[in-house]
Batch of 2 targets.
Target 1
Amino acid sequence: MQDFKGRVAIVTGAASGIGAALAERLSEEGANVVAVDRDSPDATVAKVTANGVQGMGAQVDVSSRASMEALAARVYERFGRADLLCNNAGVVLFSTLLDTTDQDWDWMLSVNVKGVINGVSAFVPRMIEQGGEPAHVVNTASGAGLIATGPLPTGAYAASKFAVVGYSESLRAELAPFGIGVSILCPGSVHTAILDTARYAGTATEWKPARAGSPTPTREHVRRMEPKDVANLVLTGIRENAPYILTHPEMKGALEVRLNAQLAACDTAARALGL
Ligand SMILES: NC(=O)c1ccc[n+]([C@@H]2O[C@H](COP(=O)([O-])OP(=O)(O)OC[C@H]3O[C@@H](n4cnc5c(N)ncnc54)[C@H](O)[C@@H]3O)[C@@H](O)[C@H]2O)c1
């Protein structure tokens, strides 16, 4: 997809942060935007329509399959199509894995993993059926979906985001024959409300930022990007049908360490098997 003018874009998690910036940026490029969030997306819709395109707000919980199905029906009733689906809504849990309760796991996986799956299941069959211009899906994972060994007690979050990466890599292969691109957004630290709305459990409560908008103690020196800069990278990634959209080239070293450990395991297996 090269041109966003007149396209219909659905963005989840659009009331805040990366989703709000993405919705606004897409509208600046002439796309009509459906802003979806569990909170009121009215402020985002107002910014979108101020750019002279159509905006539609939907207060929907992405973890509900039935609600996402109903949303897709409403979008197709109004616009007759969907060209770009950004499954971006997500939540963070600070908790050691052993402290993570069943309820916390359900919350984490239902929003971060099922939320993405629900968006795809509700919209993509209709996108395939509508045919015509190339369409695109962007699923928001995280740098934590590529490297799980950071200093923060966010193992359940990492597990959910690794799932998004695996799901999306498979989806990219499945949808290519239909002319639908899939990109996986893996942001590093971005200046949004996510740490303020995160859940903090057990001993991990000490990671709660002291003031709204401030980073956790270990992240004070991490480069925090602004959501609008992430939105620009996403638009470039869509235009290039990039499999991955990263925001922090600083991750390169850690990615190499992980890949090297896996390559070393191949060598170990080859030696052990005499291959
Ligand atoms: N901010 C970062 O540093 C960072 C880094 C890596 C990945 N991410 C990912 O980026 C995405 C956007 O996060 P953000 O940083 O903009 O956070 P944010 O908290 O500013 O925005 C997330 C939005 O998702 C919405 N949301 C949460 N649960 C929902 C649900 N069940 N149904 C519908 N909407 C729901 C929230 O209401 C909120 O408006 C998330 O998937 C997050 O995991 C963020």
Target 2
Amino acid sequence: MIRKLFLAFSFVCILISCSTAPITGRSQLILLTEYQELNLGSSAFSQVMKESKVSTNKVYLDAVKRVGFRIAPVTNKNYQWEFTVLQSDQINAWCLPGGKIAFYEGILDIMENEAQIAAVMGHEIAHATARHGGERMSLGILAQVGAIAVQIAMKDKDPAVQYAVLQAYIPTVLVGAILPFSRAHEHEADEIGLIYMAKAGYNPEEAVRFWEIMYEKNKGQKRPPAWLSTHPPTQKRIDEIKKLLPEAMEIYNLSEKAELKVLH
Ligand SMILES: [Zn+2]
């Protein structure tokens, strides 16, 4: 058993690579290589595309591609970028590792202009370029190694006791480490996304406007849509984005401005 634990830790140590998030410069512990992450991203994307219908709304498709191809170069990432809109009234958008981005029609329905697309695009792309997925997966691996350690420590105990302790241990890891992590990731993606949109020539004030629209939309909803539950449009979030605005506005003022196209 001890040998197994040793092997598990060696496995983790071999894979450890130190990484740095773009813009914020935060150092990260990521146990996957970027290459592994890109492969996961591409295969997940082809899977989703097999199961989904691409939107026939040409205005939406053109807008998302136009914004995407303006933001992609400012990230300095050599990804195989793909931008699409999927048929669904869900308020949702995502970016998989390697720059595979989808917006759902539902989130575009409530946006006013292309700068608001840029706000969400910048945020979602930031999750990918800052490798938040890889970081979370790494934490999952460490949590499992931790769980093995708990099992070993208790190997002489009654199996029912072992099971109970393990059940107690796992939620502790989730609440104690992974959830705060996701809040930190959200904040970091807001920060990086704001800089990305500004560099690409979109007014960062539209990010504040977008989150205000979301805030109104979310009010009084008992069960918020999936994207909103992981992206809560709280007053705190809006205030934090406002704090980042002066720096982003400086970048925007020096950028080559994108044309502000309305969506509806
Ligand atoms: Zn996010």
